Structures are given as structure tokens and as C-alpha cells.
Amino acid sequence: MSKRIVVAGSLNADLTIYCERLPAPGETLHGRGFAVNPGGKSANQAVAAARLGALVTLIGAVGEDANGDLLVASTAGAGVDVSHVHRIAEPTGVAVISVEDSGENSIIISAGANGTLSPAAMDPALFAGAGVVCLCLEVPLATVHAAAAAGHDAGATVLLNLSPYAPVPDGLARLTDVLLVNAHEASAFLGGFSLPAPAAAADAWRGAGEEFARRGLHKVLVTLGSSGSVVLDAANAAEPVVRIAPTRVDAVDTTGAGDAFTGAVAARLAAGDSLAAAARYASVAAALAATKKGTQAAYPSAGQVAAKLRAVETDIRP
Hints:
Elements: E1 4-8, E2 12-19, E3 34-39, H1 41-51, E4 56-63, H2 66-77, E5 81-88, E6 93-100, E7 105-110, E8 130-135, H3 141-153, E9 157-161, H4 170-175, E10 178-182, H5 183-190, H6 206-214, E11 219-223, E12 229-233, E13 241-244, H7 257-270, H8 275-289, H9 302-311
Parallel strand pairs: 1-4, 1-8, 2-6, 4-5, 8-9, 9-10, 10-11
Antiparallel strand pairs: 2-3, 6-7, 11-12, 12-13
């Protein structure tokens, strides 16, 4: 049986406008529609995992406002335990999102209530028996560290999605079992180290895996957009690098697809999968999420992912 997932972090209302293309600096464009949707990286990841059948507890904070109502209802409706989402006087966090016709997006967030989530909210009792603790950086770093420590002490796998990017203190790195980053975040984390091209073969990524390991991160998953992803596992001498092929779909809106990927990885790790197997599964879940507008409403069920897995091959590249 799958173990419980604890997701600690952010809930945002997504204010999304659709347009032909993203505006250049100083440019004003006409939009083609507007929507207010439930979002926030942590809420999205919790919903994505729950829709795939995982048992999920979400720890976070929202305002006593309509956006807070929307977020609590959406996450609870997906089967997430929201009893530890605190309602406070601060306004709910928001994300202002522009989505162009290709599906690409740009996002600006305002923390709101997320910025008040404190280390004190990370009660160790909430992490007892958890299999995976899923974290991002949309809440204060001290709170992320407290959640990672509680998860580590509980024996859970601590999964840190390094987004939005910020430097990782050594203490947090030591508590992180799996680091999940995109190419931009990986490059920023490694500083002067030059990453291979996204489509490079597995052998070209060995040096990157060694660089991460030197910084205390021995299991790293790097997402590479249309080039799939790469699993770097310094602890696996036989297969330290695994390339995961992308799942091809006609993308409509990529907003939140990365969160669908993270939530799916968490769900499969909680079920006992290896990191490579979890990444293959997550590739399909994220691709399906990109075929619909919005974030949480676009996330697939376990049955939909299973059907897509049967219909297409998600091969490991040589």
C-alpha cells in the first residue's frame, strides 16, 4: 500500500489571461479570455498526487476571502486532507499568469498568506507515518527547512522542488533525499558548471550528477521540457544516469504541468517505485495536464495515465 504524502507550502489563486503571444517589455496586447483558477505549487502538487490515488495531507495558509474559499474547496474536492490549511486575515496568495497560443506561460506571484506560514505550523505529529514529504520554495525558507527536518525525522523521503529558485543552505541540502529541478534551476544551483544540452545522451550527464553529489544532493531529477527528463542517482553505481523520454501531446496550456510532474513523482515514490520509474510515470501525467487549460482541473486520474501509458511508449533514451 502507498504511504501518506505530506505537502507543505503554498496555495494561490491563479489569475490567468490567454493571448496570442507573450508581450515584450513595455508592450500591451489584447487578451483572448480570463479565468480565476485554484493554484499554488503545493496545492497543485497535492491535487495532482491525490488524483492519482495517493493519500495526501496539505499544510498551508489562505486568507479569509473568496480566493481562500476557492482553494480549500478545490483541494478538498480532489480528496486532499485540508484540515491543516490555516485561514488567516492576510489575503490569499495570487499568481498572475499569461498564456500564449503555443501553451507557454509567464508567471508572477504575490505570497500573501503563504508568506505567513511559519515553522511552528510544521508540527512533527503531522509527519508521523508519512512516506514522502513534498516541498517547494513559495513559502519562507525557514518553514521549508522545518518541514524537511520533520519529514527526515519521521523517516520520509524528502522531495524538494527547487522552485521558485533560491540558493539551498547546506542544512536543507542534507535533509533533501530527492531534488527536483528544471534546467534553469539546475544551472543556477550548480553555478559555473556547464550543463549538457537538453537532448544530450545519458553519458554526457554523468558530470552533472557528480557535481550535485559534491553539493550533498545524491538523487536529482532534472526536467528538460520537450526533451523529457534525466534522473541522476549517484548512489546507483550500475546506472547513475537514466534518460526519460518525453510524452508527446498537443499542448494547450503548460501552466502547472511541472506541478503535475512533481505530484506524480511523489505519488509513485510513496507507492514504492524507484525514482526512474516514478519519473517515467510523471512524464505521462504532466503531458496529459498540458492538454487542457488551467492547472488543477487539468490534472489526470490514475486511469487516464494508465490508458496513455498503454497507448504510447515512454522509452529510456540510450
